[in-house]
Specification:
single chain; mainly beta; Tachylectin-2, Chain A; Jelly Rolls; 2 domains; six-stranded mixed β-sheet; 1 helix
Length: 440
């Protein structure tokens, strides 16, 4: 009885945790992520997709009423700091317009400036507002009026090495303008960024690295957005088109907005997909993967992964459905099709099915057992290897038939310190489903 209670307590403690596997936000839809390194943490400012309420006429379109902010120190555990504000808190925003699209944030002179698009009162087209805070997580106070002279969406602020601030945004084309030192007014008229490739473009994100400036943006080449970039020697251009950062989504998600950030010596690409909503791509979720540069400054194309970024502690829940590699006779399915935020399960469909999950840190304290949340109608055996498919077996999980999800605790055969890749192999049985593993 004590053992059963202990395992139930483990399961309860794990509910609602936010981990680094893609998508990185697990408790709500999120999109258009702007990631910034502030105060030794990554702060994430996404838009927030919601199901269309009864008073919103376009049930088949994007619907966004507020903004949240998230942060992480290790890119593994993400904290939801709550709502920054909603459309009802901004005096110039049209009520029930649900147009709080892609935002961004930047730090200057002891304050954080949060830029966001919205639909003004008595107007059809969007404009760009600013909210100000003394902390990256808020509270943010919106300015009473939008930035005069801006008509567009998807703002991205940038401060150059000489202190000059700029703002980039989209409105049929991509525009750039200088900002005054107060960060709330334009210092120059907006101008169209020239020499960009043909095709629909939006969502600009601008950054500098070494001697180059990078203008990155979603670009429709065929029918779906890719992520593309151009390089230049000045924040105002000219820019030269260099190619794609990420190909079109394989899941049918029409949009893909993003940001690029350096954190603790590594560059990352934050983007979105419709993993939690495969049948409706207007409800999206934020993901993150590592990004790398070539010697000449060009960007290597990023291949989306389920595994995401960061090192997973062996004592955290390891959701192996967010795999690094997978066998052909292994598949992934939702735990509950009616509530996709419950996550996924790994389906070992026949003998020798396997899944690989990279970069697990076993630390310096030796665990004594592995616990797996498993569902199966048959007897079977799961072996846990490290380093490769034929590597040392550190645990064996003997599965018995059951009528739902159960927790199975198995002793470790041998413990290995340090960081290893995991390989879970079904050596006997068929149709065994695994929700997660944990070493304790």
């Amino acid at each position: 009885m004590k053992k059963k209670l202990l395992l139930e307590c483990i399961a309860i403690a794990l509910v609602g945790s936010i981990k680094a596997q893609n998508p990185i936000i697990h408790n709500q839809f999120s999109a258009d992520p702007s990631a910034r390194a502030f105060e030794g943490r990554i702060y994430l400012y996404p838009s927030h997709d919601i199901p269309a309420p009864a008073d919103y006429p376009r049930k088949d379109w994007f619907c966004m009423a507020d903004y949240h902010v998230f942060s992480s120190e290790d890119l593994i555990h993400w904290k939801d700091h709550g709502i920054i504000f909603n459309q009802d808190n901004v005096p110039w925003v049209k009520p029930k317009s649900y147009g709080m699209w892609a935002p961004d944030c930047i730090f200057r002179n002891g304050k954080y400036y949060f830029y966001f698009p919205a639909t003004p009162n008595n107007m059809k087209d969007g404009s760009i507002g600013v909210a100000i805070s003394e902390h990256p997580y808020g509270p943010f106070k919106p300015e009473p009026l939008p930035i005069n002279g801006t008509m567009g969406i998807d703002p991205c602020p940038f401060i150059d090495k000489d202190g000059q601030a700029y703002i980039y945004y989209a409105a049929g084309n991509i525009y750039v303008a200088k900002l005054k030192d107060n960060m709330t007014e334009l210092a120059s008229p907006p101008q169209i960024v020239q020499n960009l490739p043909k095709g629909f473009k939006e969502g600009p994100f601008f950054f500098g690295r070494n001697d180059y400036y990078y203008l990155t943006y979603p670009l429709v080449i065929d029918k779906t957005e890719t992520l593309a970039y151009s390089m230049g020697k000045s924040p105002m251009g000219p820019f030269e088109y260099k190619g794609l950062i990420m190909d079109e989504s394989s899941t049918g998600c029409w949009t893909n907005h993003h940001s690029v950030v350096e954190y603790k010596g590594q560059w990352y690409l934050f983007y979105h997909n419709n993993y939690y909503s495969p049948k409706f791509d207007k409800n999206r979720s934020v993901c993150a993967d590592s990004l790398f540069f070539n010697a000449d400054g060009t960007i290597r194309k990023v291949i989306p992964t389920f595994r995401g970024v960061g090192v997973t502690s062996a004592s955290d829940t390891i959701h192996i459905d967010r795999y690094s590699k997978i066998a052909k006779n292994t598949s992934i399915a939702f735990l509950d099709d009616a509530n996709t935020f419950e996550g996924w399960k790994t389906c070992f469909n026949s003998e020798n099915a396997w899944v690989q999950y990279n970069t697990v840190d076993f630390g310096k304290k030796e665990p004594h057992a592995i616990t797996a949340r498993v569902s199966s109608q048959t007897n079977g055996v799961l072996q846990v290897h490290i380093d490769n498919l034929n590597g040392p077996v550190i645990a064996q999980i003997n599965v018995m038939p059951n009528n739902g999800w159960i927790l199975i605790k198995s002793p470790l055969i041998k413990y290995h310190y340090g960081i290893h890749n995991l390989y879970i192999v079904m050596t006997k049985g068929n149709n065994i489903d695994v929700n997660w593993l944990i070493f304790k």
